[in-house]
Amino acid sequence: MTARILVMPGDGVGPEICREAVRVLEALVNDHGLDIELHEALVGGAAIDAEGDPLPESSLAAAREADAIVFGSIGGPAWDGLERAKRPESGLLRLRSELGLFANLRPAILYPQLAHASALKPEVVSGLDIMIVRELTGGIYFGQPAGHGTDEAGRREAWNTMRYNDAEIERIGRTAFNIARARGGRLCSVDKANVLDVSQLWRDVMNETAVDYPDVELSHMYVDNAAMQLVRAPKQFDTVVTTNLFGDILSDAAAMLTGSIGMLPSASMDANGKGLYEPVHGSAPDIAGQGLANPLAAILSVAMMLRYTLDRSDLADKVEAAVGYALDRGLRTRDIMNQETQVASTQEMGGAIVDMLR
């Protein structure tokens, strides 16, 4: 059955990196029998400029019809002055919520060729392979009540609510346990149970869920300690599961262990395997349109799509191997280069991956 893939390039460097991701998909169609059809829709600032809405109904309808979504990036200074509900980022939050994309998978893998680019010493990060599983549709980003106003003394104030129920926690917990079972069999749940009631519920439900996974070793860690341990001894982690807010922060910290945030893909999944696949990095408007963006996170996001939604792990392996071969050749975009490597543009790096898939 032909899979329907929706491409949502968005803003900043999003269109550039999505073009390279699409080139990879087209190579797989032409040379490896991948059965897909590609469609495109507006999102973020581009959608605001065209239709006055960061997620137009036509784009949401196209996303609902798709089997998977390849997403670029959104946002930029041009839209920072809009009220929060009308900014580009609200389009992505709504998309996640409307599609029920509750599980965010963020692998942090260090390619050996990039050990020099890591913020840590090579011996600390060599062989790094962590999967961070972040709950994506609950917690403080979506909890109510939320708002802003003034108090009785006329001082401005604002408030947000961190809220989870046991079903939401169990759902993301089972996703993480299943991933850990397929990896190294170790799952670390990150919370702040020594301070937050919602974290105590999180920990309780994780312990209850663990009973069904006797082959997975469950541990717990407070988020402040987890942040420190990611820098001190990151290879102690195999699979990590945590809340929306904590996962947002920890996964970006893990990005610097791999040499560049431009190397990190991600998947946001629903309960049935449908996913939105996007690089972890932002829209980088300062380098947009200059051919400087690293497309490898977007291309590796395509590999995740092949593995998790399209059930083509064979092709995912080919894409990931092609990335390794390109790095072996010494090709580097500006964010991961050193004195001994060849600087490649966005298009040149994407082209190298395509050549190696043929």
Written description of the protein model:
This protein is α/β, with parallel strands linked by helices. The protein is 41% helix and 20% strand. It has helices spanning 14-32, 45-51, 57-65, 88-99, 122-125, 166-182, 197-210, 223-232, 244-255, 296-308, 313-328, 346-357, and strands spanning 3-10, 36-40, 68-73, 103-109, 129-135, 147-150, 156-159, 186-191, 217-222, 239-242, 265-269, 275-279, 331-332, 342-343. β1, α1 (14-32) and β2 (36-40) form a beta-alpha-beta unit.
Key terms:
358 residues, alpha/beta, 10-stranded mixed β-sheet, two-stranded antiparallel ribbon, 14 strands, globular
Question: Which radius of gyration do the C-alpha atoms yield?
Answer: 20 Å
The number of helices is 12
Strand sequence of the main sheet, in spatial order? 2-1-3-12-11-4-5-10-8-9
Structural class: alpha/beta
How would the global form be characterised?
globular
- Cα end-to-end separation: 24 Å
Provide a brief overview of the structure.
With 358 residues, the protein is α/β, with parallel strands linked by helices.
Give the topology, please.
Blueprint: E1 3-10, H1 14-32, E2 36-40, H2 45-51, H3 57-65, E3 68-73, H4 88-99, E4 103-109, H5 122-125, E5 129-135, E6 147-150, E7 156-159, H6 166-182, E8 186-191, H7 197-210, E9 217-222, H8 223-232, E10 239-242, H9 244-255, E11 265-269, E12 275-279, H10 296-308, H11 313-328, E13 331-332, E14 342-343, H12 346-357
Parallel strand pairs: 1-2, 1-3, 3-12, 5-10, 8-9, 8-10, 13-14
Antiparallel strand pairs: 4-5, 4-11, 6-7, 11-12
Helix pairs in contact: 1-10, 1-12, 6-7, 8-9, 10-11, 11-12
